[in-house]
Amino acid sequence: MVSIKNLHKKFGALVVLNGLDLEINQKGIIAILGPNGSGKTTLIKSLLGMVVPAKGDIEIAGEKVKDHWNYRKDIDYLPQIAHFPGNLKVNELIRMIKDLRGKDARDKELIEFFKLEPFLDKKLNNLSGGSKQKVNLVLCFMFDSPLIILDEPTSGLDPVSLLRLRDLIQQEKAKGKTILITSHIMSFVEEVADRIVFLLEGKIYFNGTVSELKTSTGQPDFEHAIANILTENNA
Amino acid sequence: MLKILKYSFFDLSRSLWSYVYFLFYLLLGIILLFLNNDLSNAVITLMNVIIILVPLIGTIFGVMYYYDSREFTELLLAQPIKRRTIFIGQYLGVAISLALSLILGLGIPFVAYGLFESAAIWNFFSLLVSGVFLTFIFTALAFNIALSHENKIKGFGLAILLWLFLAVVYDGIFLLILVYFQDYPLDKFALIASVLNPIDLSRILVLLKLDISALLGYTGAVFKLFFGTSQGVIISFGVLALWVVLPVYRIIRVSAKKDF
Ligand SMILES: Nc1ncnc2c1ncn2[C@@H]1O[C@H](COP(=O)(O)OP(=O)(O)OP(=O)(O)O)[C@@H](O)[C@H]1O
Ligand SMILES: [Mg+2]
After folding, report:
1. A52: Cβ below 6 Å to ligand 1?
2. CA A228 to CA A226: how far, in whole Å?
3. Alpha-carbon gap, residue A43 to B104, rounded angstroms
4. Which residues of chain A neighbour B3 with C-beta distances below 8 Å?
5. Three-class HEC string of chain B
6. Record keywords: Secreted included (chain A) (predicted)?
7. Of B20, B171, B180, whose CA–CA distance to B101 is shortest?
8. How many CB atoms neighbour CB A158 within 10 A?
9. Are B81 and A99 an interchain contact pair (Cβ–Cβ within 8 Å)?
């Protein structure tokens, strides 16, 4: 599904990705973890062609990412920080993205699912952070693509919405999709992730299941296992 | 591409400034026609306004639109759309809508005044062609500057400086050189220097069409000789076209390598 070879990316003097290799061939939920600024978003944006890597190859579903764009029709992406044109109304934005994508969409179902009906006629500038994130989620999930990439989907959501999101992610997984996800909420990650990929110093530091992570660090508790990696590496 | 254009138009059609721009030309056209009571004279006054104002508006709208639509751009970048399509679509959206404001805003009063029965129609037409070229040129230059500068204030400042340079400072330097080296034959230099600056070039193309090249002083004869030939006209339009093509090419190049 996703194949990344020897990926390098710097911003000025700051080396963010430093020869990263990653193969993801399984279906299910893969959590990409790492401390703030470790390059998770940079890695994800490289997959989407939004960040242009200095070196390395990325292939998604057998198609090269560099200078290509059509592969993105099979990716649903949730950006970490939703930047929306502020003077648009919610329903205008949804209609616009549907029109641009030219694909069937289940927006109605998702609007109902996240209880967004009262906000449809509001301008995006006037929404609360959590409501914006829900719009972000609707835009992402409405196209039913085989690869879903979620950058901090939990941010800003209240507990009820968080549970809804978890259910939605599980439903998508049950459909046999591959879901890449980043999150700093460890309980959430532990609950949903089939595999953990841990980014550190521009490379994959750990790649395995939650229980493998626990055994390799000798920590019975997931959160402590992660903290253990970080303290050992002074990150 | 058409969809991006459509949404750029949609976006601009919600902006008050697009209408202000259109209404400004409409009023300008009406007032000049009433004051001058003569199409040819109105065209000359218009030229002086257009040659300075159109580049300024293209610059300001280009920079503002680029920065204001950054969110939209980010949204588009994650969709299955070519990068080139996104940026060129937005550029064309701004440039075409500005050009339409110019053409309609001036065209309506002039046509109502009886442009089609008048001998001034070709002068007016050459004025519009220059205006449209200047719109496309300066919007493209503005996009270039905005693409290379994340900082809005800096991008805006640089774009205005570029306009100031091409619209005012360039002529100042040009005149200084002419005065300082007046003992030397400067015809060729004057010709080349004017052809290289799109604002000067547009002004000359309109003036020559109006047949008042005498106003250009002693270099007038040389200019008339050059621009009077079809070769000269082709070179002039070639240079104007290059001023569009090169910045647009750079938009494609720079946007392809940019991180979002
Ligand atoms: N466009 C950019 N220009 C300059 N530096 C950037 C840019 N994008 C990211 N960076 C830097 O690259 C580093 C990695 O950023 P990135 O957003 O990938 O981290 P992250 O792992 O997603 O962090 P977080 O957990 O906070 O979301 C950071 O130090 C960031 O400041
Ligand atoms: Mg991030």
Report:
1. no
2. 5
3. 48
4. 99-100
5. CHHHHHHHHHHHHCCHHHHHHHHHHHHHHHHHHHHHCCHHHHHHHHHHHHHHHHHHHHHHHHHHHHHHCHHHHHHHHCCCCCHHHHHHHHHHHHHHHHHHHHHHHHHHHHHHCCHHHCCCHHHHHHHHHHHHHHHHHHHHHHHHHHHHCCCHHHHHHHHHHHHHHHHHHHHHHHHHHHHHCCCCCCHHHHHHHHHHCHHHHHHHHHHHHHCCHHHHHHHHHHHHHHHHCHHHHHHHHHHHHHHHHHHHHHHHHHHHHCCC
6. no
7. B20
8. 9
9. no
- Cα A87 to Cα A123, A124, A127, B10: the distances in Å are 6, 7, 11, 12
Each domain of chain A, given as residue ranges in start order, spans 2-234
> Atom 25, ligand 1: which residue's CA is nearest?
A36
Best residue of B10, B13, B68, B77 to probe chain A, by most A CBs closer than 10 Å? B77
Q: How far is A60 from chain B (nearest CA, A)?
A: 13
Label residue B43 by pLDDT band (50, 70, 90): confident
Tell me how crowded residue B161 is: count the other CB atoms within 10 A of its CB.
Answer: 13
The greatest distance separating any two alpha carbons of chain B, rounded to the nearest whole angstrom, comes to 62
Question: Which domain range does residue B182 map to?
Answer: 2-257
CA A73 to chain centre: 16
Report the alpha-carbon distance of residue B180 to residue B173 in Å, rounded: 10
For residue B82, list chain A residues with Cβ-Cβ distance below 8 A. 69
Name the residue facing B78 among A50, A86, A99 (closest C-beta). Answer: A50
Q: Which of B74, B79, B257 sits opposite A100 (nearest CB)?
A: B79
CA–CA separation, B2 vs B90, rounded Å?
A: 10
Q: Which of A30-34, B1-5, B215-219 has the lowest average pLDDT? A: B215-219
Q: Is the CB of A34 under 6 A from ligand 1?
A: yes
Model confidence pLDDT, tens digit, residues B220-244: 667 777 777 788 888 889 999 999 9
Note the ipTM here: 0.88
Q: Which range (B66-70, B78-82, B184-188) has the least confidence?
A: B184-188
Q: A64 Cβ partners below 8 Å, 6+ apart?
A: A57, A58
Cβ contacts below 8 Å, chain A against chain B, sum to 58
Q: In chain B, what residues touch A67 (CB-CB under 8 Å)?
A: 256
**Nearest beta carbon to residue A51 from set B11, B76, B259:** B259
Are the beta carbons of A39 and A56 closer than 8 angstroms? Answer: no
Best of B15, B72, B73 to mutate (most A CBs within 10 Å, chain A): B72
Fold entry, domain A2-234: Rossmann fold (3.40.50)
Kindly identify which residue of chain B lies nearest to residue A99, measuring between CA atoms: B3
**For chain B, how many structural domains are there in total?**
1
What's the CA gap between B159 and B144, in Å, rounded? 9
